């Protein structure tokens, strides 16, 4: 009898071991550039220590447009991934379909309500229930400068659009591309929203982009925005069309370009190239936007999976919110933690500035969602704005035409 019991116990142990070994999460994401992939590896390794295997489902393409297309196919076939990297209003859209999981018990146990900012919870929750684990807070209104090129141009970082134009002229004199830009709609939109904020301030940004006020979308301030975009277009290199953002970052890193307007994920590329802030590159708020922050937050939305996958899913959500992971991930990625209780001691100067700016903007009413990255408007409105902005930037629409088309496109998309 004893031997039979021992044999049975052995079988059970082996079976449990097999189940444990097979525990995995399948994760759909678009973190495919070098700095992004390095940051994601931190999470993969942490989960492996927990006995959870990582099944990768990468879909290249900044801002996640292609990833959402891939996700639709999976959900339609009744086979959703465990977790999906997602932004802003895309989270709300999927939640409304009733296909997401519930993280309430874990969030309550770990006190997420107290440490995750309300602006993020607006997207992390649906109908009062936690459905996503926020990874970070990015902000989009940054300008990245090659330090050597800046020093050669006099060393002064620009504080407004006029000073930026003067600096770009000096970069042109140096024989380098003044402003590295990738001609993709989301990148055009990222530049545009910074120019909107710089030109009109936060009150105007909220009126035009958050409230979609027709007069703000077609008036004199917006005319200045489109005129500035036309001017900035003259500082791109001839090969900008269709170029991925990280390749534009590489031009600045290599000294082939002087500056890039891009979100703080750009810093991950500088760090991966073993460059240091203040020594090799300079990070500043896009000229004229000091004191304001346009944000987006990468979150892992948990989908409604079978009970056999639930334990691994909860382990992943817990690992994402672990303060040690928040530090390890965000110091590599270029973003700042999604939790307010994480100290800034391990962050570089740009990271410290990002955390300070975020805290001040959140308390001062100058924190707003990024349109280009899905935190100001639903996808339909965002894409309508992209169409007008990109056509104008490429010379297919005059400023007069853009001012007429923008409120019309926005109204049609609502």
List the helices and strands and how they pair.
Blueprint: H1 2-22, E1 24-29, H2 34-49, E2 53-58, H3 65-76, E3 83-87, H4 88-96, H5 104-110, H6 112-115, H7 118-124, E4 125-126, E5 129-130, E6 132-134, E7 136-139, E8 142-146, H8 147-152, H9 161-173, E9 177-180, H10 185-210, H11 214-218, H12 220-233, H13 245-253, E10 257-261, H14 266-272, E11 281-285, E12 293-296, E13 298-302, H15 307-321, H16 323-333, E14 336-337, H17 349-364, E15 367-369, H18 379-393, H19 399-413
Parallel strand pairs: 1-2, 1-3, 9-10, 12-15
Antiparallel strand pairs: 3-13, 4-5, 6-13, 7-12, 7-14, 8-10, 8-11
Summary keywords:
single chain, 414 residues, alpha/beta, 5-stranded mixed beta sheet, 4-stranded mixed beta sheet, 19 helices, 15 strands, 15% strand
Textual characterization of the structure:
The structure is a single chain. This protein is α/β, with parallel strands linked by helices. It is built from 19 helices and 15 strands. The chain has a five-stranded mixed beta sheet, with helices on both faces. A four-stranded mixed beta sheet has the order 14-7-12-15, sandwiched between helices. A four-stranded mixed beta sheet has the order 9-10-8-11. Helix 10 (185-210) packs across helix 18 (379-393) and helix 12 (220-233) packs across helix 19. The longest helix has 26 residues, at 185-210. The chain is globular, with a radius of gyration of 23 Å. The model is unreliable at 1-21 (pLDDT under 50).
């Amino acid at each position: 009898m004893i031997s039979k019991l021992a044999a049975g116990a052995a079988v059970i142990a082996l079976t449990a071991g097999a189940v444990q070994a097979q525990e995995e999460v399948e994760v759909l994401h678009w973190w495919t550039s070098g700095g992004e992939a390095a940051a994601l590896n931190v999470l993969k390794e942490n989960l492996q220590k927990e006995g959870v295997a990582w099944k990768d489902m990468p879909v290249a393409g900044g801002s996640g447009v292609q990833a959402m297309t891939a996700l639709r196919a999976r959900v339609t076939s009744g086979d959703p991934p465990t977790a999906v990297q997602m932004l802003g209003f895309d989270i709300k859209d999927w939640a409304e379909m009733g296909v997401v999981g519930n993280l309430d018990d874990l969030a309550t146990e770990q006190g997420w309500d107290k440490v995750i900012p309300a602006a993020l919870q607006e997207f992390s929750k649906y109908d009062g229930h936690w459905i996503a684990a926020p990874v970070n807070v990015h902000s989009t209104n940054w300008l990245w400068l090659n330090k050597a090129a800046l020093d050669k141009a006099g060393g002064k970082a620009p504080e407004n659009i006029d000073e930026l134009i003067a600096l770009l002229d000096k970069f042109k004199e140096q024989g380098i591309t003044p402003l590295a830009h990738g001609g993709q709609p989301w990148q055009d939109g990222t530049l545009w929203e910074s120019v909107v904020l710089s030109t009109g301030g936060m009150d105007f940004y909220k009126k035009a982009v958050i409230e979609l006020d027709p007069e703000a979308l077609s008036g004199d301030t917006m005319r200045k925005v489109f005129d500035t975009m036309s001017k900035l277009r003259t500082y791109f290199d001839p090969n900008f069309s269709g170029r991925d953002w990280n390749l534009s970052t590489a031009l600045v890193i290599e000294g082939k370009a002087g500056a890039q307007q891009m979100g703080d994920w750009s810093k991950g590329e500088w760090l991966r190239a073993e460059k240091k802030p203040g020594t090799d590159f300079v990070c500043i708020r896009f000229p004229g936007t000091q004191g304001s922050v346009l944000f987006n937050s990468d979150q892992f939305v948990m989908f409604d999976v079978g009970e056999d996958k639930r334990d691994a899913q909860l382990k992943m959500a817990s690992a994402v919110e672990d303060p040690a992971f928040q530090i390890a991930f965000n110091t590599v990625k270029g973003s700042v933690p999604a939790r307010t209780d994480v100290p800034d001691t391990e962050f570089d100067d740009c990271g410290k500035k990002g955390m300070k700016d975020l805290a001040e903007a959140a308390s001062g009413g100058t924190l707003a969602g990024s349109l280009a990255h899905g935190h100001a408007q639903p996808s339909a409105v965002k894409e309508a704005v992209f169409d007008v902005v990109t056509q104008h930037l490429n010379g297919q629409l005059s400023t007069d035409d853009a001012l007429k088309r923008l409120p019309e496109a926005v109204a049609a998309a609502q």
